[in-house]
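Predict both folds.
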Amino acid sequence: MVVAVVIKDKERQYEGLRICIAGLLDGLDMMMFVLEHEIDSMDEAYTDNIDFMDEMGGKRFSNNSANVEKHGFIHATLKETASMLRDADLVIPF
């Protein structure tokens, strides 16, 4: 099962990341999309969780170039994001 977590609300970026990690631990294919904003705070805990997500095979996408350049996200336009969301079995919005 492929699950997409879409994070548009800056205030809920930690929740979205936690859902991704939980899904990965449960054996799901997880994709995280951070749209329209730069990650607010990459403190040590958030960075550790991002690293863990990468190690577990989760995918991270963003249409914000700062997330791509500073935080290692894969760039995806809104059109590309829409295509990936259509292919997901479940989409969780934040």
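Second protein follows, with its predicted structure tokens after the sequence.
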Amino acid sequence: MKKIFAFIICLSSGIACIAQNVGIGTTAPGFPLNFANTTGDKISLYGNTGNHFGFGIQSSLLQIHTDAAISNIAFGYGASNNFTERMRILNSLGYDGMILNGRLVLKNGSSDLVGGGAGVWLYKPDNSALLGFMGAQNGQNIGFYGGPAGWGFTYDAVTSRVGIGNNNPNAPLAFPPSLGKKITLYPGATGDVGFGVAGNRLQIYSDNPNADVAIGYDAAGTFNERFAVKPTGAIAVNGNTGTSGQLLQSNGNGSAATWVNKPYVLSYAYSLSTSTYLTGAGVLSAPIQGLDNQTFTLQQPSSIVFMANLNSTGDVYTASYGYLSIKILNNLNQVVASGSTWGQALADFRHITITAFLSANIPAGFYRTQVLLVRNTDSDGNFTIGGAAAVLQIFPN
């Protein structure tokens, strides 16, 4: 009886019912609910004419639509008055087209494994052409594809390495084996700040001829310079480029290197033959011309080495014994360093050489030399000096 009643309803409403299949606009429904094989609107869920909420068909296209751009399409679960949304398609024009509550999982939709895997193609902003692709390159890399480099940026998901122009990175960040700029930290008006590679050379550069290249450390956002190369080529240590002629001196592992004055040599000579007479009783001395009373100034504490020698060129008369004395005196005529030879005979030799030596550490200041031939016997002596020379070596500390 129920079947007969349903059949009567179908006939009276123009709906064909065959074997419990219902046809709307078709007399031969092949499915529980079947529409006519025509394009256009099929179901209206809300609205009687014009724009409405519903479903439609166009050539090779299933349409799910709302009645206006301000109305969106949501997917979720529950009931209409108790709905949990998982995804929303936004119909109004703007930057956002879809909102997804959760992750988006993409699988490869092609059997062509060579051409890459799942991902997203992006159009240019004017929608005139495809701009690039981001997704799976192969079974190991994900990355970005576009432009003349193709896969210009890749991430190796097996080794966790990043390649820029290198699809097989062998380090946490790897570049292609090509010369030129590699990293630009700041693009300047006339040049860039960054790193590059030339033939057998790593380049670290600034962006203009007035800029330094500095090395140091960061402390809570403040840069502390320890070493820098100035645009002139000068080298700065702790911000100090030193003065002309200075040398950079290591102070060991625990201290910074410092600029020091380079060692230098002062030399004095006397070559005119003359006789030095030490006549009289007691200990007597005579200055050596050209070596005695020579002055010099130290700009900083220094180590010094002072050596003097003299020689005879003629007979030495009368037996006497003595030595060569050398000293360094300050501006108060105080002795700050001294040295001498051992006592030796000054007589009975036709040709002899006497040498004296001293070394000391002395502070900065003004100094003068004292070079004396000293007799330590009571016998008169006549010593003919054929030549004398002294060398003062200065090693700034």
